[in-house]
Structure to design on (534 residues):
């Protein structure tokens, strides 16, 4: 990533993936995972990385020790998260507050109650004592040389119930030396207009520097974050891919993209935005969640076009159906081919695949018709690019790519009385003028067929040794107009460098799998640059 300038302190991009993001059900990060994510976030250029709650568990305590030893942060400052001191104690004597200092983090975020009901019911103390807890903890940490941000938990609900008290908490934090007071929509129930009005009033009435932390329970966390910025907030708390407690937090990626591309505000180092898609997917890998295909800006479908009408306009100018150039966020345009495709979709897809269709309208029309016919039978080409490319080349080149010809195949499933099974397949093929008969066993009939195909062909095409089936999906499609149901199989294959998907459709699952396998191997040989011989 190029590094020419880093945004100044006047606007903060604050990431809490390692603290609030880790509160999402299903995420369980090791210290090593946290360190990896911290490196990605620092490279991406966020200003603050909230690493967890030191003292709350050994993992977070170890993370702070190791992060400071092992990572040379180029852009971000490390932030430790914790609560204000216990009621009727001294911050200086509170072990949890001192654990924040011991973490060595230069910045500390303190969560403070700002809703009167929470003070009385959850903290079981008085409103005045809560204000004292805020003042005492902030001033103690500031006197110890730390920069302090205060997260006012349940601020918006608290402001509705008792605006004067909610504002008193903001003033207490700010007057005690907090640099930013962050208004939190902890229950995530707010809507953008409410957030904007509240942030405006609180900014005017308190004069404090304000931030926003929005949970996504109404699906408005990103909109609420931007509404707060519109109202004067200069600190946004977000998480990568929107991970977080319950349904999640404001998603870092659409927030920074909006700030840079729609507001014209530089909040990341120069060039960082172009790394956004990669960073989003890399973090998804570390937390072991499949990246959401439909995530704004960074999802694989964010710039995927399916409708024929869209494609025909995109052919003239991609801007006609895209709100930004996908390159700006490191994503790319993709044309999808399906029964909603028209000529333009096929022409653009041909270009994307490097297949020259010239200006042959008849050829393009034939491809459109074949796609529509095959999709009616149950094929799906938007999920099987490799099968589509084989179909396209067959039409464009006037003959099917053939590396082998199938005489017959057979799969046997044997169930034995002792409960054991055996699966065996035999394939009879022709390749380079030679008749091949190969038999193999497998852990299922499709696996046996796959092995038999390899056993038969690998001697002739050693390139097949590198291929591996990495995904296999079956779907039963309902019969139409009185016909019986059909089966669709999608197979993903890898050669260690790239991956491709193929589709097969038939009345039974083994025949559908065979169709997808034939395309998978044929495409693998095409990719390897092998000349067709049959
Ligand atoms: C809105 C948010 O997401 S804030 C982040 C929340 N994150 C987490 O809770 C994850 C880490 N938490 C933990 O590991 C534990 O809850 C700990 C270590 C912090 C505390 O554990 P315990 O001491 O066993 O307390 P427990 O979790 O049962 O309850 C929290 C205590 O903190 C108190 N508390 C809650 N908020 C605050 C606050 N802002 N200031 C001071 N005390 C607070 C509660 O009143 C309760 O006190 P009690 O023990 O006297 O009843
Ligand atoms: C601080 C925080 O995570 C919240 O209020 O939601």
């Amino acid at each position: 990533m190029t590094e020419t300038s880093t945004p100044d302190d006047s606007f903060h991009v604050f990431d809490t993936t390692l603290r609030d993001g880790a509160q999402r059900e299903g995420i369980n990060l090791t210290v090593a995972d946290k360190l990896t994510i911290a490196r990605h976030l620092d490279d991406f250029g966020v200003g603050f990385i909230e690493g967890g709650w030191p003292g709350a568990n050994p993992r977070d305590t170890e993370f702070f020790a190791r992060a400071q030893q092992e990572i040379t942060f180029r852009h971000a400052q490390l932030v430790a998260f914790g609560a204000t001191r216990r009621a009727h104690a001294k911050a200086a004597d509170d072990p949890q507050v001192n654990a924040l200092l011991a973490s060595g983090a230069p910045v500390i975020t303190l969560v403070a109650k700002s809703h009167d009901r929470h003070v009385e019911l959850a903290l079981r103390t008085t409103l005045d004592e809560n204000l004292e807890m805020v003042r005492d903890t902030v001033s103690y940490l500031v006197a110890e040389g730390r920069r302090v941000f205060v997260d006012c938990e349940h601020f918006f609900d608290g402001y509705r119930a008792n605006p004067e008290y909610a504002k008193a908490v903001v003033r207490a934090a700010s007057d005690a030396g907090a640099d930013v007071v962050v208004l939190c929509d902890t229950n995530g129930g707010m809507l953008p207009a409410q957030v904007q009005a509240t942030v405006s009033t609180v900014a005017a009435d308190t004069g404090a520097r304000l931030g926003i932390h929005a949970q996504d329970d109404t699906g408005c966390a990103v909109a609420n974050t931007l509404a707060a910025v519109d109202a004067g907030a200069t600190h946004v708390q977000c998480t990568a891919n929107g991970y977080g407690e319950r349904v999640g937090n404001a998603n870092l990626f659409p927030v920074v993209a909006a700030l840079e591309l729609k507001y014209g505000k530089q909040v990341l180092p120069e060039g960082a935005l172009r790394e956004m898609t990669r960073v989003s997917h890399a973090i998804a890998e570390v937390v072991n969640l499949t990246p959401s295909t439909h995530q704004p800006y960074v999802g694989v479908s964010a710039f995927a076009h399916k409708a024929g009408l869209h494609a025909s306009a995109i052919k003239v100018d991609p801007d006609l159906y895209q709100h930004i150039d996908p390159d700006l966020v490191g994503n790319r345009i993709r044309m999808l081919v399906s029964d909603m495709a028209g000529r333009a979709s096929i022409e653009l897809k041909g270009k994307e695949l490097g297949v020259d269709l010239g200006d042959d309208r008849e050829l393009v029309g034939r491809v459109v018709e074949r796609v529509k016919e095959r999709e009616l039978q149950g094929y799906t080409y938007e999920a099987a690019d490799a099968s589509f490319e084989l179909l396209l080349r067959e039409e464009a080149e006037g003959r099917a790519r053939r590396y082998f010809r199938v005489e017959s195949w057979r799969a046997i499933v044997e169930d034995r009385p002792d409960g054991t099974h055996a699966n065996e397949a035999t394939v009879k093929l022709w390749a380079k003028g030679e008749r091949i008969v190969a038999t193999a066993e497998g852990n299922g009939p499709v696996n046996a067929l796959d092995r038999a195909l390899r056993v038969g062909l690998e001697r002739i095409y050693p390139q097949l040794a590198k291929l591996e089936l990495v995904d296999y999906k079956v779907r039963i499609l309902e019969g139409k107009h009185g016909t019986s149901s059909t089966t669709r199989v999608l197979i993903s294959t890898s050669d260690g460098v790239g991956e491709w998907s193929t589709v097969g459709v038939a009345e039974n699952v083994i025949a559908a799998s065979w169709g997808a396998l034939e395309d998978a191997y044929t495409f693998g040989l095409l990719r390897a640059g092998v000349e067709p011989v049959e």
User: Anything to note?
Assistant: The chain has three domains: 12-287, 304-378, 405-527. The pocket of pyruvic acid (ligand 2) is lined by residues 20, 111, 151, 153, 184, 186, 213, 215 (CB under 6 Å). The two ends are 48 Å apart (CA to CA). DSSP finds 17 helices and 16 strands in the chain.
